[in-house]
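Please predict the structure of the following assembly.
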Amino acid sequence: MRTPSSPPPPGPLLNVVGVSKSLGGKLLLDRVSLSLNRGELKVLIGPSGGGKSTLLQCIHFLLAPDEGDVFLDGVSAREMGKKNIRSFRQEIGMIFQDFNLFDHLSAQNNVAIALRRVKKIPKKEALERARLELRRVGLSGKEELYPAQLSGGQKQRVSIARALAMDPKIMLLDEPTSALDPELIGEVLNVIQDLSEGGMTMLMVTHQVGFASHLTEEILFMENGRITESGPPALLLGEASRSRTYEFCSKFMEISGRDPAAARPSSK
Amino acid sequence: MPMGTFDFYANVLIPALNHGLWISVKIIVPSSLLGIAIGILVGAGRALGNAWLTRVLNAYVALFRGTPLVVQLMMWFYGLPSLSLWLEKNFGPGAAPVADLFRLSPYAASVIAFAMCSGAYQSEYIRGALLSIKRGQFLAALSLGFTKSQAFWSVTLPVALRRALPGCGNEIVYLIKYSSLAMLVTMNELTGETKAIASLYFRHLECYLLTALYYLALVTLATVFLRRLEKALSVPGERID
């Protein structure tokens, strides 16, 4: 935990350097590099199978990259070694497309269990912290409900609370709204927007181009295991850009009948 | 030896069956608990272990599911002592401590045989349940900083055990009934007692009918208990039928 007397080291908070990964003889990530500054939100878009989820898992070292390294606050994940990689992971919050809540635990215990098992916080304190985090994502009063009793949007908010409780330095979000019914997407996006405005550093895979372009300074387009385009949304999503990003996003927008450049997030 | 029906029931059959019942329970309870413990370890090893471990455990399951339980029981009780003799013959009296291990009492042979066989079946239910759980919950636990074994014990296994419970309960019901095989290795459990009395008094129909009722009561009791356990462990919002 950083104290105010020790200023954060200069440079980006997250630095991904030349990460490659092959699985089953297929090259999924091909020397991917990117960096995020403190408080920054970057959006990763691109076709499925392009390597986005693999990249997030490699940043988290849930999948060890074959080559390259990930630095968080200047600390190399590779140098942490197998034993200490868990403390590296604790500092990175991960949000999954299908929530991955623990089925057998109530919302409150879903949030509290990692505090107890990993951070060794006493039960009472952990539950109190869990209650606070659930309130933060608008789920006061739902503490005792189990995943099977929650809507998709509520489940995703529990999973966000679960990640936040670990005080991560950065959050990785892997299509957090893709498994949700359209009317439930807004409540999750609102939480993400609040987090971003509160200064949380985030890397988010999403197809919500409109929402993303409103919040982010930079869109990264990923295809065939590489980041092939990057730039501010206004530039990449302009029709004049003739970018692969525009071409890809316009296919999404055709469905909703909107122009990607004009896309704006749903009102709060 | 003329004897009234009431006398026969009150003073011969029922006391004998009650004695047998007690022996049966003493066989069934430890074998089923051991069987579940073996099932969890073997099932987990088969679902999550490396290739070699999986191979060894698969061989265990194939052997114990693939041969008659009677044959296994005979091996444990009558077969193993031959090994003791062979050891002592070839390695002299020094081998006695090891050789003695292979001379099982009828009770030990029964419990080991039933637990090993039951464990093989239980591991199938546990393995299936473990594989049915999406890897996502395990990944989520790792992403929060759990170790792999923490993630297994506090996330994957609790969910899997709930799913495996109906199958495991079924296996326990089987075990209650196949515990009767213990009479073949001289155990005077429920069926053994019945056979002795029935032959002595030549009242087979009554004796076996009453014994059947005893087993039925045991199974019913176990079923009720397992149902309660399932209910108590069920997760709100998830259906159990």
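Residues 5-56+107-231 of chain B form a domain with the MetI-like fold fold (CATH 1.10.3720.10). Chain B has one domain: 5-56+107-231.
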